[in-house]
């Protein structure tokens, strides 16, 4: 079981303070979705959680050995094939060539990449394929914790659903925890034990919403009902502007296969 504690994290870019004493505790095995208005500092917090960015102040406690990260932009090596991008983190360890090949192909298969796609460079892949290569690269290390920054945004509804199911089944099998950043409330409700809502100005976590049941065991009706109710929750109502609410609704309708139900 793996958890993460971010304690009173502050960070500035140039003179502009983006995060101001933000604390978030993810208990061992807990999947937390982080939502909040665009620009409030979610990606910055994810980069700090993943050790990509050193905060100006604050403490990070990781209760795991390895995490897998997916960034908002796929951040693939442009000169390397999809296969080599997925394998890259393994080449930094002590695995044999045969083990690397086996794990790379298993990860590629899990994200529904075809063998032909693996020879292509990132520029030759579609946006959705690039996103899946990035997800495979995160999963290939057999992570104990996931940090995913809008990992499924470039995927069509069917693939998005498939990737969500993949993460849920792996989380269940391995008991890992995770931090998922998303603008899609339906996705947040589907993937997480808890939805943490970040302040508009990066001044902390305003509170959390807890969908009923556990991720992976919720019915689509439960998720849909929760999402509809949550939109009117003061925590979200004050934070999401009209456009963002519309996007969230579209996503929920798409995923459920409804014709503009709302
Ligand atoms: N490398 C950087 N240099 C300067 N400013 C940055 C940098 N990265 C982020 N910022 C600024 O920090 C603020 C928070 O950005 P961040 O990407 O963390 O927000 P976010 O909540 O993830 O937004 P979104 O939901 O739109 O992805 C923004 O004002 C952004 O312009």
Automatic annotation (TrEMBL):
SMART domains: AAA. InterPro entries: AAA+_ATPase, ABC_SmlMolc_Importer, ABC_transporter-like_ATP-bd, ABC_transporter-like_CS, P-loop_NTPase. Pfam families: ABC_tran. GO terms for molecular function: ATP binding; ATP hydrolysis activity. Keywords: ATP-binding, Cell inner membrane, Cell membrane, Membrane, Nucleotide-binding, Translocase, Transport. Residues 4-225 form the ABC transporter domain. It comes from the Bacteria. PANTHER family: SPERMIDINE/PUTRESCINE IMPORT ATP-BINDING PROTEIN POTA, THIAMINE IMPORT ATP-BINDING PROTEIN THIQ. This is NitT/TauT family transport system ATP-binding protein. It comes from Roseinatronobacter thiooxidans.
